[in-house]
## 1
Amino acid sequence: MAWLLITTCLLVTSFVSADDLSHWNHADKDSIYSRSMNDINSHLDDVHREKRQAFTEAAVYHVTQCNYDNTQCCNDGASIEVSGINLQYSHATITAAKLVHRMVRFMPRHIFVKLTNKSNGIGLFSSSDLPLDVFEEFYSVMPTQCRTTCNNVYLDGDSTYDCSEWCTTSEYPSRPNYPQNLLWAYGNATRTYVVETNIVCDGFNTGQNYENFLMREFGLTLMTRVFDNDTLDDIKLAYENTSATSHWGDLVNSYDYFMKATQIWFDGITRDVGDMTCLHIFDNNQPKCNDLYEQRQNIKTLDRSMFDILNYVYNDNREYLNGDTSLCRW
């Protein structure tokens, strides 16, 4: 039945050539995950936020387990919206939609349906913008005073507002308690959002060509919005068991563990994960494994508990189904 579903899918494969992107200069060491305050403050001075939504241009694709399309979504309503707003790379939205489709096409149906109900989809934005510039859930609700802080701020008169609700949680691995608006990608918001250059691996690529942020934050979305308590407990237990080994390198917590595991499952990270990415570990100038299937088998050998979780969540316990994904090409 699965093979019948696969063969009947209509895949969109045509791409439009990309435009040039004006780069920002990010010198701080944390710019891979977030942008510097000096750049942000300079940028904010030039943006008239009240008028921003009137000038947005959006491309929208609907992702199902069978295909991805820019027409009306499926009859049963179970689809993930992938939208790109004010992008400078015209093919970024369809590229992200294709990746999301390949990540969800084999997962159990009930997980996919829950994901479509619990998240507003995927949002792409330009590196010259902020989430507050382009996404309605930001500019229609979030006070502009919260754009760069997690503290209490003054609004009109003497009233105050707690900006912490617009910040990452203390458990977010890369930048805990940090303004969401300053991140290049984040998976625990109303929608999962990511800067377009990381998707197309061009221009100012914040992942430095070794980390796919969409894969990473997609894993966070599943953990914070989709998984039941049993699955979360399984991930925490697997993390406790593997933290005593050196296979994964340095892990912050169970969220970091599953997010990086998701990247490895889809070949979206090439370093800083110990022995797990055998496609990118070389011995006598040869990679230790030859394809993504062998990399997944490497996870099975080194961390069977996480392999079983990934194989269930993304493949519905069919480890023979390959992902056909990588860091920048799919």
## 2
Amino acid sequence: MELPSKHRVFQNAKWTDHLGNIVEKCPLVFVSKGAPGRMGQLGVLKLGIAEEAFSRSFRANHPDQYKDIDHLFRCRNKIAHRGELSYRDDSGVTQPVDYNTVESGWNSIMSLIEWIETK
């Protein structure tokens, strides 16, 4: 499998105001209090947000694909913060990342994008 480097998911987001003018991101964000998310950390959508926004849940309807994406987030965090190409599964066991992990994750991301766009 070859990941298409020109795919829009690899492009930087363009932030626009209500008139469609491109605006810059805020240069600095301070968090004075912890903002708990899923598993007590920021970065992963809290449960119920998608269901509120879309009146349906990708996690509930596609649990295996949701798990693939969750594993990619965990892998990303392990790489970014520890420099290790692995992740811990739900039981706390460290799992290596290989071609199949990336391929499954990519396919699941594409399914999620399609799921969002069909709303």
## 3
Amino acid sequence: MNPTDAIEQLRQATARVEARTAALASERRRREDESAKRQGALIEQRRKGEHGRDWQVLQQRIDLGQTTEFDIVQGIDLSNEARAVRKQMGEALGKVADKREESGEGPVALTPELSEAQDRLVATLQRLRAVQPPG
């Protein structure tokens, strides 16, 4: 393969990776927007007491700047309500972990398209290095 062909293959591979990256970024933005909407709805539900009195009190304290969701989850907020919520969260996470273990689910893998694009890019770079003179 001559250097011109190798460079062209590298450009094509790079274009494919850039296109896929742009598509993934767009999808990420869409998911972030949806997540923000869900978070807003969750906050409103907590304010109304739909997640129990403990979360209602904690959300009021969050709104007043007296605590944060991070402080509640991480155990920095030592109020009775925060302790109760952490206990509930631990129980819920334990149930989720048990279900996940029972179902045999593992970590999420790269998409096949992204994995293939990475493989093609590596192969093109290796070919390009092979045809370039040292130095």
## 4
Amino acid sequence: MRPLSVVFVSLALILTFLSITTNYWFENVQDQYNSGLFFKCSLRNNSSLEKFCQKISYIHSRGLAISGLICLLITLLILIFSWFKLRNLFINYIIILFLLITSILLILTFIFYPKEKTNLTLSHSSYLICIAIILTFLSTILTIFDALCIS
């Protein structure tokens, strides 16, 4: 079960990184508007195809997302280290704790993201973070089963 957890956490790490770095958390196709954690972009005027992006300060969501990314990286390093070196119940509990903290941080990132307009739809960055949350939950379940097998 440990290799599958490593794969799931690795995929969640990649998806979280992509979700943080892209500017398509929410979008409005009619107004040609999209926003991410760092920038929100819209067309300069309706006849132009030039996008105008401005920096935004979503400090809470950005901080939670980066903290979740760091927790995922730490979890992946502990998973890889424990897979090759030692495997005991305490390490599994540490991994479970980090995975639960990561899941909570990523869920809070999604919840606390400010929605400025009411007619926005979810875009691919939102879907990526949702998939990353599901993968961290699956990794948590696999690690719990692994801990039960050790004890």
